[in-house]
Write a structure and sequence with these properties.
- With 86 residues, the chain is an alpha+beta fold.
- It contains two helices and four strands.
- Strands 1-2-4-3 form a four-stranded mixed beta sheet, covered by helices on one side.
- A hairpin with a 2-residue loop joins strand 3 and strand 4.
- 21% of the residues are buried.
Length: 86
């Protein structure tokens, strides 16, 4: 079964991230994201900031495995992610 592909989420500045994982190292950013997303309904959007280079592979891989959509944007010393739960 192939994952469903929805519209690409867009990165936009908002009031603040749902998860600020800057300063955390692998595997903590993705563990905290998974914990935050666990009880949210499909269609929910989470904004995440992380500066661990491993998160650039870990967060999209986690999202793919769970049928979520993710977009990322590098911003200086960190990366901003928008995860739309599938």
């Amino acid at each position: 079964m192939s994952p469903q592909v929805g519209p690409e989420p867009t990165i936009s500045p908002g009031p603040g991230p749902d998860l600020d994982a800057r300063g955390l190292t692998c595997p903590l950013p993705v563990i905290r994201l998974a914990r935050l997303a666990r009880d949210l309904p499909a269609g929910s959007t989470l904004h995440v900031l992380a500066d661990d280079p491993a998160a650039e592979a870990d967060i999209p891989a986690w999202a793919r495995m769970r049928g979520h959509t993710v977009a990322l944007e590098r911003r200086g010393g960190h990366t901003a992610y928008v995860v739309v739960l599938g």
